[in-house]
Amino acid sequence: MLYTVIVLAGMVLAGIVAAFVIELLVVALFPNVSAPRQHLTKGREPLLEGLVHSDRRWDVTFEVEGISISAWLYLPRGQSSPVPCIVMAHGLGGTKKMLEQYATRFQDAGMAVLLFDYRYLGESNGEPRQLIWIPYQLQDYAAAVAYARSLKEVNAERIGLWGTSLSGGHVLVTAARDSGIACVSAQCPLLDGLAASEQQLHRLGIKYALRMLGHAQRDLVRSWLGLSPHKIPIVGRTGSLALMSDDDAWDFFAQYAPDDFVNEACARIAIRIDKYRPIEQVHKISRPVLLQTCDHDFALPSTVVDRAASRLGGLAQIVRYPIGHFDIYRGSHFETAVSRQIEFFSKHLFLTDSK
Question: What is the CATH number that goes with domain 57-195+276-349?
Fold first, then answer.
């Protein structure tokens, strides 16, 4: 009797696995499946009026696993000895062109800046284009830090990290792994992908979640089979099929995204983002952290900020703004946030010992 039960259970399990494999293959191979494109307008505005490109900015490159990473190196005027350096990269699907207004401010404050595009995005190399994959981006951050430390113009012991949105999570994980980082500024960071996904499910509903799952599965399985990637928009109106399905996100990118911004990404990131939880690693950070958060952030519940503050303890400086996720990049909110970042970096990067 027991043997019969075991055999039947095995047959049921095998049937379930076979059905799942067939479902994945159908999703991956079914022809003429695509996500509606979301076309951003041309002639977009700069984020900061009157921004002048620095005459002390150099195009540099470094490699990660044989892939060339494009970066800008900013050096302060009047430099006579190695200076502190801030390593920076953008959030979900962005490019370094969207962060120049921060880099020039840090440069004017006497710090070097290394601002880079992740592989597969912007001016960096790598195929497939528009692949956003968290383990690779963390490798890119670590490689950028190593490259900054190798520069004769940079004080290798005075490296700070700056991140925003998705990269705000990356800098926290990088600092947890690298005890040599002097300090970290994380702006409206993705602290907990699971909590963000649950908040998005509550906001957009189960139908949206199932559609995203299907597109993500299609792209992921196609990558396993060596087929062309399946892409979906990065930003779209609320309710549309996009990684950031939000009117505020759409309005922001429609107005301010640079010409090199491509509004599409390999869909597989949608099946990975909920498993990314920097909140689980912040207790390993041993250096000062500036967390600037937005109370009305669609991807950052306030309870997660409270948990991060508790786990960081006295290392954390928490600044909360009564605004949405994209408001911090522009106008008076940008001025307030970047001024606090300059104050934070100046305090912790120019000291003999930041512990």
Answer: 3.40.50.1820
Partnered with residue 59 across adjacent β-strands are 72
Domain extent listing, the chain:
57-195+276-349
Distance CA 83, CA 345 (A): 12
Length of the chain: 355
Q: Cα separation of 17 and 25, whole Å? A: 12
pLDDT per residue of the chain (355 residues) written in tens, 0 to 9: 666 767 666 666 666 666 556 656 555 555 556 777 777 775 556 655 555 567 889 999 999 999 999 999 999 998 878 999 999 999 998 999 999 999 999 999 999 999 999 999 999 999 999 999 999 999 999 999 999 999 999 999 999 999 999 999 999 999 999 999 999 999 999 999 999 999 999 999 999 999 999 999 999 999 999 999 999 999 999 999 999 999 999 999 998 888 889 999 999 999 999 999 999 999 999 999 999 999 999 889 999 999 999 999 999 999 999 999 999 999 999 999 999 999 999 999 996 544 4
**H-helix or E-strand containing 148?**
helix 134-150
